[in-house]
Amino acid sequence: MSVEPVYQRDAVPESPAIHVVLAPGVDSRLFRWVEVGAEEEGVPCRLAPASTEGLAAATYEAAQASRLGVGVGVGAEKVLLHEAHMPVGQPVWEWPSNGTPAEVCRLAGCNAGRFVKRMPLRLEEVEPVVVGGALATGEPAAEIQAGTPPAAIREVAAKDAAAPEAIIQAIARVLERRGLA
Amino acid sequence: MGRGECFNVMRLIAGIDVGNATTEVALADVSTTSAPRFLASASVPTTGIKGTVRNIPGIVDALRRATQSVEVQLSDISLALLNEATPVIGDIAMETITETLVTESTMIGHNPVSPGGIGLGVGRTMHIRDLVSATRADQVIVVIPREYDFEIVAQMLRRALEAGVPIQGGIVQGDDGVLIANRLGQPLPFVDEVAHIERVPLNMMAAVEVAPEGQTVRQLSNLYGIASLFGLSPQETTLVIPIAKALIGLRSAVVIRTPAGEVRTRRIPAGALTLIGERRTETVGLDLGAEAVMDVIAQVAPLRDVSGEPGTNVGGMIGRIRQTMGDLTEKPVEEIKIRDVLAVDCQVPQRVAGGVAQEFSLENAVGLAAMVNTDRLLMERVAHALMDEIHVPTELGGVEANMAILGALTTPGADAPLAVLDLGAGSSDAALLRRGEAVRTTHLAGAGNMVTLLINSELGLGDFEAAEEIKRYPLAKVESLFHIRNEDNTVRFYKEPLDPRLYGRVATIQGDRLVPIPGNHTMERIRQVRQEAKQKVFMRNALRALSAVAPAGNLRLIDFVVIVGGSGLDFELPQMLTRHLGNYGVVVGSANVRGTEGPVNAVATGLVIQYFERKKAGLV
Q1: Which of residues 494 through 533 in chain B touch A, CB cutoff 8 A?
Q2: CA–CA separation, B496 vs B508, rounded Å?
């Protein structure tokens, strides 16, 4: 059985995608988190080379180069969402990283995807969510923050890449013992 | 113009119309002999409830605005004329008459923005930590709490699938459905954003369905689909009717079969209304629907009073209305007589009791508007209080409906015979003037506030202000940061980018401002709810009111109808009325009072004209 994820990979270099740029010195794994955010929205994402000085200008260029007209720029302290029609120095939105870059990158990726789909952005802390019957209500934050994973778990997952592998091996061992694998 | 000079030559009269929503003033000089010379108008929101002394601040505010605009003092006014208010006050109430209950968490009817995967899966619910003990014989629906990272979950599921465990789908607490489904190498349905995942019972048969984008669940919204999946008997099948009903229109859903669990639609005993007419009395059950209630009201008219069956919803509603009216008029509750009722059916989203993902179900509800008679002393009290406040002689200047006709007749091109229609905030009023006949008037329950209530309830806004804005302003969808699409499909471009918080949202256009509407309703849905609410209340009441004043009750004998009041300013109502009443051969137009004021200020203007005519006739 294939284990290759089925979501759209960079099949064609010029295929429409959100373009992501990383500022120099930024952990390259953060691109994955932008991609994860966009993936949940079903929109493809691509890492683009950052050629211009300055994050805002680089993000603007990424948006220009993107055939979807949407770019995300990841800096050391902030993450930007840019759109091809906006002026260079005026990104659509700007999130401070606040020490949780993985979470912020996922949120920015999610919003880039929503922008492409012309859906309202998730900008406020408390966001109304569709909860059933095709209806929406503003629920207390604790109830509706289903989309935001607890920071601690995300951190562990992001930092300790060995953890999933260890757990999987443990499962495999158990399965083997039971004669299932 | 110098102050002292004008004080000597002018005789300033102020016509004041206190309405449910706005207080309007017309300021005129009546010292001339030919016609009153109108100097200024003003309109402010009414303070307090119409007919109470709390109206005074609003009246004084309106008078100040009018006088300041022509640089005279409030004390320069020699006489203030108050409308002899329609002796009615309206109130509204709404109650749901059905209720969906879930016991033991048997259903997740759920519409997350992005469920994962696709298809239908049936199996036993199993916590992901127990996957290690699954066998190849188990059809499994995996229950995945938020603590599990999607990468880990995906790898665990993949290993289990490779080992031959037939995983059929999953129920996910976080917003990870797509991410998990994408990493499995085979399409399986995952319902995500299930907030109360701890309430999902384990080791029970469950079915998970995710429809393709742009489609809705088919199997789980079909009664017999559920029965086939779980092998239900005909008796058991009748128990899942409310489940199937609640899942219609959703993109993803879960149904879990628990031994004792059930979903019930309970009909709340809505009760019966007893309508006491002048000649006969009839009782009608509210659960027969608004249409039946309105038919009976037409049969027993004119109404003397209404009572609701004690201990039922309608009993409670009528009781509350009586209490409010009693408090307002300072009369004993027993003396409050309800003179008209407008009943409207609607569908209201209600939280499903006992649901696990904050499910909503559309329940039937009935909205009631009721109107009670008050006595004239109310406005006299306001007149006395106003006189004490501004030290200007104040009197009641004439019956509201007659004044409205006088004001409407100042519209260029208008002449008797004509009917005026005032669809206000609290009541719908009509008056008919024919040459040589006394003016016929009627006041009916239900108007603008009822429309707002319906919009608020049907869209589940829980925000009366937001509903009021939807009623008043046209809609637009913000399609990019530089353009919006209007209701009629036209597009408007902006030079400056719009606020990103508006992006993708439906908003009301309030002049230059775009105000986003809470929730995720589509523009089409909001528009439909708004127009239906106006149809149900305004169209029906326009017909009822005009029929009531028409000769022999025959609407076709009315030729011209002039719309006065705030409803004439509504961006779509005059056209709706014109189209609708055109079917009866009635010509409808909005008033343009004094050729300058538009549909408002008719009563205030009428008060001044009436005074002038009386003065000319030597009566004052």
Answers
A1: 497, 500-501, 503-505, 516, 518-521
A2: 19
